[in-house]
Amino acid sequence: MPKVLYSPSSPYSAKVRMAAAYAGVAVEPVIVDTNAEPPLLIDNNPLGKIPVLVTDDGESIFDSRAITQYLNRISGNALFPRNAVKRTEAERLEALADGICDCLLAHVYERRFRPEEKVEQSWLDKQWSKAERALDYLAANPPKLPRKITAGHIALRATLGYLDLRFAGKWEKKRSKLVRWKKRFDEKFPELAELAPKG
Ligand SMILES: N[C@@H](CCC(=O)N[C@@H](CS)C(=O)NCC(=O)O)C(=O)O
To answer: What CATH number should be reported for the domain whose range is 3-74?
Structure first.
């Protein structure tokens, strides 16, 4: 069975695990500590980042968007529509959701890895304002939630889970449509919601 190297709090990892579950691809989740840079991680991804999917043949696939494309191929298009316009829409939503995580992670790492007196507030503000702009856009234009969802919907759910984990109380105000979107997603896909980022 393919392995997914992951950490429970990682939003990109949550997306990949949810995508595998939705696509019906069984994967073995293996927790790795990126700070410790264990050989299992470094040997499979020189960047030392998660998630990484390791196939039964020992081939490693990263990053998370390469993995969702791979899962889509092996599942016969369970994650992206075949229609070109709709497919671009799904890929764009995935990029936007992941892009929010890129900003949030830059924010979290700035505070985590720098001594307090060296934390650059203007950098934190810039990253947060990018995430806020994207969240405002999504709150104004929440994606439809059809019966058949895409990797874009799944990425957004994972991102909102990361916001709940690290920025609870800081993102929801004036974005009630997005908060409702998450609730409806969880009602429709409880088995995926279970895989959202956890502390
Ligand atoms: N673009 C990558 C981002 C992956 C990423 O930054 N993962 C974080 C965890 S959420 C990580 O591995 N951080 C450890 C590090 O950067 O050393 C993806 O989509 O997979």
So the answer is: 3.40.30.10
Where does the pLDDT of residue 88 fall: very low under 50, low under 70, confident under 90, or very high at 90 and above?
A: very high
Which residue's alpha carbon is nearest to atom 6 within ligand 1? 49
List phi, psi (to 5°) of 52: -130, 135
For residue 50, the ligand 1 atom closest to its alpha carbon is: 12
Ramachandran area for residue 122 (φ above 0: left; ψ -120 to 50: alpha; else beta): alpha
Q: What is the CATH code for 84-193?
A: 1.20.1050.10
Distance from the CA of 24 to the center of ligand 1, in angstroms? Answer: 24
The model's pTM is 0.97
- Ligand 1 centre and the CA of 146: distance in Å? 29
The pLDDT assigned to 45 comes to: 98
